[in-house]
TrEMBL record:
Keywords of this entry: Hydrolase, Metal-binding, Metalloprotease, Protease, Zinc
Cofactor comment: Binds 1 zinc ion.
Keyword Cell membrane: no
Pfam families linked to this entry: Peptidase_M3 (PF01432), TOP_N (PF19310)
Protein name, entry field: oligopeptidase A
Matching PANTHER family: DIPEPTIDYL CARBOXYPEPTIDASE
Annotated Oligopeptidase A N-terminal domain residues: 82-188
Essential cofactor(s): Zn(2+)
Length: 716
């Protein structure tokens, strides 16, 4: 998952307006230099300057943000009131370089929000959310600014600009148009009011989820550890001790903790408690319940797009995505859905047979799915996930990432000594990224691997500085963030195959950042149903022989993974695809259906239940993200009516994978790798994604590749 930090959650509609390039505006620079607030200061030190993460303080956030917005609006006013006729340089390029200080502050703000949140920061976040919305509206509704953009846009339709400049103009104009720039004064006022209210609701939604993740912890006694591995129990004991509960074992309310517990614990009643805690986040009928917030968000979103003449939010949102319309997105999902739920029926039947044979006297429930799926895996494929885990050390997998980056992108990763580059937590490590042949610096890669209190769950990638060249080349500062359970001192970090796949996925986003060759900041953006494609494709390299044979080493013996176990892994590659596809698709379908429904008197809990029943959702598993905890969609707008994008990207991924499988040297074929970088990674959003894919593949992607990839029946 890409995380643009604050820019996709609170300022998603002006990313293309302010850009993320630092322009050395003299007035702004003078004002910043007069301030002692570290969050406002220009980045100094090695590598063309780096964020002063070791000096950032929560108490500096409010002052910095307020001053940053003042300075940002000064930049915008200067552009809007320029007496010279509007041109690409004095309007579009000037906007690309605006809000220098504010962009720096957003980097720190994103860390406070995602990696090191605290009650103190959440109070500040709640206070600032409406102010940030007002800032957004002052830009998107600046009539003089929009008229200048429109002038440049209309001129470019008659006398086309160079391709990259034309793309920036088109994207900028479209972004303003989609955010109400053509509305009359009364509608603009209401549009701004809605955005302000939504910003408050998004912040509250996120904080409610974080509250439930932090406050629902299941503590086990020593006699309740049946089935759990030694490494897992050691980690659970350490977490429990850190929380003041000695002699106990803590199962935290995050996926990295609940997944292994639900897979291996023999304590069925405890599995039910842990499962319920996790899937009821935001849905506990208390002060942190999100159901009413969601209803209000849906109403406001529909009202806002209605001001611009759209029937629903999905229609407005998808017009600039690859899918173009909600109907196209729904058609794709519903083409896969029947095969997915049919596979779930087969998987449940296999599980029930094992439960019956064991005399367990139960009907498979949602909290049993992972546990019995593992039993089926062992029986059908003689594959024990915990055995595989012994070969999946985080350090070795990190080296595997570097190997793949070296083979495909010609990158070399070198550890930066501790203390040379500031970090916001001692767990964060940094690597220098350079071209292997020329030695040219590409940038820095930060890794924040472990779960901790105040860090949001899941895994994501983000940039602190993106590549641009319109005012001289700038290197990239990119990060990957995970939530692996931190081991007891001296113990290795062992992760599941699924977690290893996610690790590769998020690194794919980082490689997308590092490989950028775009000139202007706006072109570093992306089309939501395309930007997951590159990272999903990179997952495939985890299963290549080169990675398996060289980096999957037993953590105790140092022996490489046996060939017989590798065969079992590959034979089981399509196992449990019903579960994985169905839990994801249910969330994606719910996202779309919620935004196509009439929100006037919507009861979220009832809508969720009735929609799942209509879809014939198997009762033995939940959606990946139940509605009250669906942060992708309701803590901001980045994935709203766009969660289907993972499936859209899956089609591209499966099709592109077949291209590599057909190549002479497979996944490390040099010609294919060069095309991969040239057409799929380096351009970012400087060309239409559909055209970029056609340049790589020679045709459009085919859904049949996805069905084959998942082992589903392909209709003739």
């Amino acid at each position: 998952m890409i995380d643009k930090a604050i820019k996709t959650t609170l300022l998603c509609s002006i990313v293309l307006i302010t850009g993320c390039k630092n322009d050395k505006n003299s007035e702004e620079k003078m004002a910043v230099n007069d301030s002692k607030n570290i969050l406002l200061q220009e980045w100094t030190g090695p590598y063309e300057g780096v964020p002063a993460f070791d000096e950032m303080q929560v108490q500096d956030v409010k002052e910095a943000m307020k001053k940053g917005m003042v300075l940002g609006l000064k930049d915008i006013d200067s552009i809007a009131n320029n007496p010279e006729p509007a041109t690409f340089e004095n309007t579009i390029v000037a906007m690309e370089g605006s809000a220098e200080a504010l962009n720096r502050i957003f980097t720190y703000y994103g860390i406070f929000s995602s990696n090191t949140s605290s009650p103190e920061f959440r109070d500040i976040q709640t206070e600032l959310a409406p102010k940030l919305s007002e800032y957004q509206s002052k830009i998107s509704q600046n009539e003089k600014l929009f008229q200048r953009i429109k002038t440049v846009y209309e001129a470019s339709q008659k006398d086309t600009l160079p391709a990259d400049q034309q793309r920036v103009v088109d994207l900028t104009y479209k972004q303003f148009e989609m955010n109400g720039a053509n509305l009359d004064a009364e509608k603009k006022k209401r549009y701004a009011e809605i955005n302000k209210e939504l910003s408050k609701l998004y912040t509250k939604f996120s904080n409610n989820i974080l509250h439930d993740e932090e406050n629902y912890v299941t503590y086990l006694n020593k006699n309740q550890l049946g089935g759990l591995s030694e490494s897992f129990t050691k980690s659970a004991a350490k977490i429990s001790s850190d929380k003041g509960q000695d002699e106990k074992y803590a199962i935290t309310n995050t996926r990295s903790s609940i997944d292994p517990f639900l897979t291996y614990s023999t304590e069925r009643e405890l599995r039910k408690i842990v499962w319920t805690n996790y899937y009821n986040r935001g849905d506990n009928a208390d002060a942190y319940d999100n159901n009413e917030l969601i209803a209000e968000i849906l109403k406001l979103r529909k009202e806002r797009v209605g001001l611009m003449g759209y029937d629903n939010y999905a229609e407005w949102r998808l017009q600039d995505r690859m899918a173009k319309t909600p109907e196209n997105a729904m058609d794709l999902m519903m083409a896969v859905w029947p095969a997915a739920i049919a596979r779930v029926d087969e998987e449940v039947a296999d599980m029930q047979a094992i439960a019956d044979a064991n005399g367990d006297n139960l009907k498979i429930e949602a909290w049993d799915y992972r546990y019995y799926a593992e039993k089926v895996r062992q029986k059908k494929y003689d594959l024990d996930s915990d055995e595989v885990k012994q070969y999946l050390q985080l350090d070795n997998l990190t080296e595997a990432l570097f190997y793949v980056a070296g083979r495909l992108f010609n990158y070399k990763f070198t550890p930066v000594p501790n203390g040379q580059v500031p970090v916001f937590h001692p767990d964060v490590k940094v690597w220098e990224v350079a071209d292997k042949d020329s030695g040219k610096l590409i940038g820095l890669w930060y890794l924040d691997p472990y779960a901790r209190e105040g860090k949001r769950s899941g895994a994501w990638a983000t940039t602190y500085r993106s590549y641009t060249s319109y005012k001289g080349e700038e290197n990239v500062l990119a990060s990957n963030n995970s939530n692996f359970v931190k081991p007891a001192p001296g113990e290795p970090v062992l992760i599941s195959w699924d977690d290893a796949t996610t690790f590769f996925h998020e690194f794919g986003h980082a490689l997308h950042f590092f490989s950028s060759n775009v000139k202007y900041p706006t072109l570093n953006g992306g089309v939501r149903d395309y930007t997951e494609f590159q990272s999903q494709l990179l997952e495939r390299w985890l299963s290549t022989d080169e990675v398996i044979n060289n980096y999957l080493i037993h953590h105790e013996t140092g022996e490489p993974i046996p060939a017989s176990l590798v065969v079992k892994i590959k034979n089981a590659s399509k196992f449990n695809q019903g579960f994985g596809t169905t839990e994801y698709l249910a969330s994606a379908l719910m996202d779309m259906k919620l935004h196509l429904a009439d929100p006037s008197n919507i009861d979220i809990d009832k809508f969720e239940r009735e929609t799942l029943k209509e879809l014939q959702m198997p009762e033995e598993l939940p959606m990946r993200h139940r509605t009250p905890q669906f942060g992708h969609v309701f803590s901001g707008e980045g994935y709203a009516t766009a969660y289907y994008g993972y499936m859209w990207a899956d089609v591209l991924t499966a099709d592109a994978s077949e291209a590599f499988m057909e190549a002479p040297d497979g996944f490390y074929d040099k010609a294919m790798a060069d095309k991969l970088v040239k057409y799929l990674f380096a351009p970012r959003n400087s060309m239409d994604p559909a055209e970029a894919y056609r340049l790589f593949r020679g045709r459009d992607a085919k859904i049949e590749a996805l069905m084959r990839d998942r082992g589903f029946h392909v209709s003739e």
